[in-house]
Design goal:
About 30% of the residues lie in helices and about 30% in strands. The chain is α+β, with helices and mostly antiparallel strands.
Length: about 100
């Protein structure tokens, strides 16, 4: 599995709700259809910083997802909300553990 971290700095804080909505309504559904998709997380770090983590099976799929996300930012006209290119870190996941959370009914 490969992970890609994107750190966005200088995020327009007035548009955080809009960004979150577009990520949930548009980006995640489309991203999840890409081959090898294993997960996506968006983190609000505060002070105009947001980070995302994408998980894919292969390095090539992870690289494709970075291009895909850039295209989505342009299509959704979010360049003003995300004025700086993200700092991207990508590589193989070399250790992992997840817990399956069960929601109470």
């Amino acid at each position: 599995m490969h992970a890609t971290l994107r750190r966005y700095e200088g995020v327009d804080r007035q548009r955080t709700a809009e960004l979150t909505e577009k990520v949930n309504d548009t980006l995640i559904p489309r991203l999840s259809e890409l081959p090898g998709f294993n997960g996506y997380y968006l983190i609000e770090a505060g002070n105009g910083v947001m980070s995302s983590i994408s998980l894919f099976e292969t390095s090539a799929q992870a690289d494709d997802s970075t291009r895909f996300v850039s295209e989505c930012v342009r299509e959704q006209h979010l360049e003003g909300a995300l004025p700086n290119s993200p700092k991207v870190t990508s590589g193989p996941v070399i250790a992992q553990k997840t817990n399956q959370l069960v929601a109470a009914v």
